[in-house]
Amino acid sequence: MARKNAFYAQSGGVTAVINASAAGVIEAARDSKVIGKVYAGRNGIIGALTEDLIDTSKESKAAIAALRHTPGGAFGSCRYKLKNLETNRREYERLIEVFRAHDIGYFFYNGGGDSADTCLKVSQLAETMGYPIQAIHVPKTVDNDLPITDCSPGFGSVAKYTAVSIREAALDVMSMCATSTKVFVMEVMGRHAGWIAAAAGLAQEQEGDAPHIIVFPEIAFDQAKFLKKVQQAVKKYGYCVIAVSEGARYKDGTFLADAGSTDAFGHKQLGGVAPVLAQLVKNELGHKYHWAVPDYLQRSGRHLASATDLEQAYAVGRAAVTFAEQGKNAVMPAIVRGKGKKYAWSIGEAPLADVANVEKKMPRNFISKDGFGITDEARAYLLPLIQGEAEMPFKNGMPVHARLKLAPVTKKLKGKFSI
Amino acid sequence: MARKNAFYAQSGGVTAVINASAAGVIEAARDSKVIGKVYAGRNGIIGALTEDLIDTSKESKAAIAALRHTPGGAFGSCRYKLKNLETNRREYERLIEVFRAHDIGYFFYNGGGDSADTCLKVSQLAETMGYPIQAIHVPKTVDNDLPITDCSPGFGSVAKYTAVSIREAALDVMSMCATSTKVFVMEVMGRHAGWIAAAAGLAQEQEGDAPHIIVFPEIAFDQAKFLKKVQQAVKKYGYCVIAVSEGARYKDGTFLADAGSTDAFGHKQLGGVAPVLAQLVKNELGHKYHWAVPDYLQRSGRHLASATDLEQAYAVGRAAVTFAEQGKNAVMPAIVRGKGKKYAWSIGEAPLADVANVEKKMPRNFISKDGFGITDEARAYLLPLIQGEAEMPFKNGMPVHARLKLAPVTKKLKGKFSI
């Protein structure tokens, strides 16, 4: 039987370890007896639609291995969601045209919840349009909001970045608070789920440690309660360190900071809740403040990645190929947490239909009663995910990152496809 | 001869490695045959004025060693500048009262340019007020603006943090730019001197690498030229990454982002130039943007400290004690760069009178002709300072930081001193 080629694409916001998943897919496919070449979509699914494919077989073994320590999306990612077959049949026909031209029988899609939906639609192309293809979703999202999987690859690293960074900054604030900054606000990502905000809580090891307040998107912001807690911390410890989720919102659902613009998925583009909270503290309590918005630094901070997260990201990439070899379709490798006291994980299988468009929120029992901190349950869940410092080679003082050739696959189709 | 005790204090904004200098002072003093105990000022010089001293002899050897990997100011720092003797004789009399009560004959002051001025005033107490004391300044500032010394301990680490962070974030932006963020702005510290902004330039290794634009405080901001360059980068590379100094200003001297409030030294408190620039790009060119303000994260990022910087910070601490043992006064250990091709450094001696209140700006030949980048001269100066990854112990996924006892020295004076 002739080998079919595979298509691999990165989708949505990238992470510090999404390229480790790419390495997992490509290395496993190179070892595979059923998969031919792996063609990566340049800029994600757009590369498939525009027949802009990258021939990963042209990359050296060392270059693919270097993906394990390269943040960002090495082949380009995109925010582009396929519409329903009914609404946009043209796009699906084009996908099949490109897949057929390049003999693609496997579709590996590396993304979050929205991407799982796209992957599910592709997995149904045999039924809906008669093109035989196996579609496997490779989980990834810093937001940790994918269902079924115990955690989402990419999250452990941003969690570690966040916990370490707020701890370090808090030591800075603590040392200066007698005469300078008393309130420090750090904004973290997480539109609808407060997983990253919760991870900031790992910085706290003893009573009095920062962060003193976490503002979750899950808990309606109560200004009076918040200000009271700030004042209490300043009085008791001399300073107050706050982690706030970009998705923090009032009771009526409006975001504390709403930039107004929206992305391709219709999500509101947020940013800047930290200065809003800091200004509130200044206006109401008069304390000197500083604020930080690490933004992309947090999700691309490969230099501070979790070794556990890195291994999981790599493992789901390899597992996707194994699933394909086993003839599976419309599934996603999921991280399964062991039942024992000591943290252990293995790879399970999740049906895509149960993953697509489902958002996993933080359980309420992960958030402390007053709504401003994490519980022991949250700590027990989160702490294993930041274990280990992922190896990171440096040269001449700077990290070594993969520099790929990104050689294009010769186009076989005539005419252009505009997206 | 009876041993005199030493007073050590941290002053001004802290760094990722200022505690390494503290470890250097304390460890060298413990080895010394002329210095008794080291009393640290709680919250800097304020601790001396209020007789709030910390007995460092109560800290274990391991705790002092752990200062080498603990960011922030372990004994507390402050922004408090002693006025002239003529203006505020009361403060100097109080200092002498406290020093005499605790038999202090050595004054180690760990700070930047403003602090050097305070240290100089203390060094003159023998002449001006008849109290014999040797005052040695221990250099520290992320701003790298101290004169005479080749670099300021603290700077190499923030430089490394900045170069690595903007490189990582740029990989993120690059991978998404086809359909998402095209312009990314990262704000860095540096009120009057663009040293940290320049360090961002180290992320660039090849033509086309980020950052594509650096906005220095030394170069008056030219909006038209800036926007043109943004547009060129977006056109050529698909995206544009910008490093901007918090001190970026217009031709007339006004800051691009001016928060309006001032600190104890009369400096304007800045912050938020990144969103201002990002909004400008959006308004004028329409590109989707993201911005980051790492703020304290950059100067407390001990997990990403430069090994070279750490060793220099420790060395100036030890050298200060050696100077004291040699009977010196009103001096500062300075980093001296070797003349050879290969980077080497040693400790020299700088007279405090030449250090106090002098700000070292970037030489114009460190900034590219168009004002938006760094030159080979800048690279040759900066690159050695970020060499080596400073060892950082982790436990249970988090960094291990010193937890000091901070045991107070029993007060000997009656009455309170209000500052």
From TrEMBL, chains A, B:
Instruction: Tell me which UniProt keywords the record has, alphabetically.
Output: Cytoplasm, Glycolysis, Kinase, Magnesium, Metal-binding, Transferase
Q: Does the keyword Kinase apply?
A: yes
Cellular component GO terms, alphabetically? cytoplasm
Q: What are the EC numbers?
A: 2.7.1.90
Catalytic activity annotated for this protein?
beta-D-fructose 6-phosphate + diphosphate = beta-D-fructose 1,6-bisphosphate + phosphate + H(+)
Show the active-site residues.
Answer: 143 (proton acceptor)
Entry cofactors: Mg(2+)
Q: Name one GO biological process term.
A: fructose 6-phosphate metabolic process
- Leading EC class: transferase
Activity regulation comment = Non-allosteric.
Protein role: Catalyzes the phosphorylation of D-fructose 6-phosphate, the first committing step of glycolysis. Uses inorganic phosphate (PPi) as phosphoryl donor instead of ATP like common ATP-dependent phosphofructokinases (ATP-PFKs), which renders the reaction reversible, and can thus function both in glycolysis and gluconeogenesis. Consistently, PPi-PFK can replace the enzymes of both the forward (ATP-PFK) and reverse (fructose-bisphosphatase (FBPase)) reactions.
Its name, as the record gives it, is Pyrophosphate--fructose 6-phosphate 1-phosphotransferase
Source organism (scientific name): Isoalcanivorax pacificus W11-5
User: Which gene does this sequence derive from?
Assistant: pfp
